[in-house]
Amino acid sequence: MNILLLGIGNVLWADEGFGVRVIERLQKSYRFPDQVKVMDGGTQGVYLVEHVQAADVLIVFDAVDYDLPPGTLKRIENDDVPNFLGAKKMSLHQTGFQEVLAMAQMLGSYPQHLLLIGVQPEELDDYGGSLRPIVKAQIQPAIDMTIDYLQVFGIKAEAINRDGDLADPVLNIQRYEQERPTADAACRIGDDRVLQVEGFELRPPQSSDERTVQVDVDYRGKY
């Protein structure tokens, strides 16, 4: 039996990095049998298909809009997982992971057991920000929920007293929080100071006789 523990999300957008931070804690603090893979899926989307196809049991960690108080941890199982991810998506990676599940099912290799462990975020629109304390506090409860779930399949996790090696050291949350600039040095929620730079001139769009195509680009409205 192959088991995949998969964290998805973007650590650069505050609480959206919850899933990745759960994986970081698992890699640092626990050892699992060889049939268990602990993976940071980030925002890879369809590139995760082969990993999902290879899993008999898939546990996904993510920030999910449950329309509940911030920091609420909730689990969704099996057929409800793709339906729920599509109901109220917060970012493009959720749509991407919906497609991953659909592709795996279409190709005939789909996990027999699927569990989503999600937390209700408090803040997403903070570029370069870290998890808010109320969300960070749910990392260990999410792991405890996972360990209990794995026992059903006869899988035991071994807690280790020292930090284990991360698959990618750059994801270390302590390093991330220490090295990022302060909000004063680099505002992370849209910086009005750019309008005060010498030589900057704000002008309305210019009309043109040429044919044009309007394109909407989602930059979270911060640029």
Q: Total number of β-strand segments?
A: 7
CATH topology: Rossmann fold
Poorly predicted runs of 5 or more residues: none
Strand content: 15-25%
- Bin the helical content: 25-40%
* CATH homology superfamily: HybD-like
- Overall mean pLDDT: 83
Helix/strand order: EHEEHEEHHEHHEH
| Overall domain count | 1
Give the helix/strand class: alpha/beta
Explain this structure.
This protein is of the alpha/beta class and 223 residues long. The chain has one domain (3-162): HybD-like (Rossmann fold), CATH 3.40.50. The chain is built from seven helices and seven strands; from the N terminus they run E-H-E-E-H-E-E-H-H-E-H-H-E-H. The chain has helices at 18-29, 49-53, 80-87, 92-106, 133-136, 139-151, 173-179; strands at residues 3-8, 30-31, 36-42, 57-63, 73-77, 113-119, 158-159. The strands form two sheets. It has a five-stranded mixed beta sheet, with helices on both faces. It has a two-stranded antiparallel ribbon with strand order 2-7. Helix 1 (18-29) crosses helix 6 (139-151) and helix 3 packs antiparallel against helix 4. The mean pLDDT is 83. Keywords: Aspartyl protease, Hydrolase, Metal-binding, Nickel, Protease. InterPro entries: Pept_A31_hyd_express (IPR004419), Pept_HybD-like_dom_sf (IPR023430), Peptidase_A31 (IPR000671). It holds the Pfam family HycI. Ni(2+) binds at residues 16, 62, 93. Belongs to the peptidase A31 family.
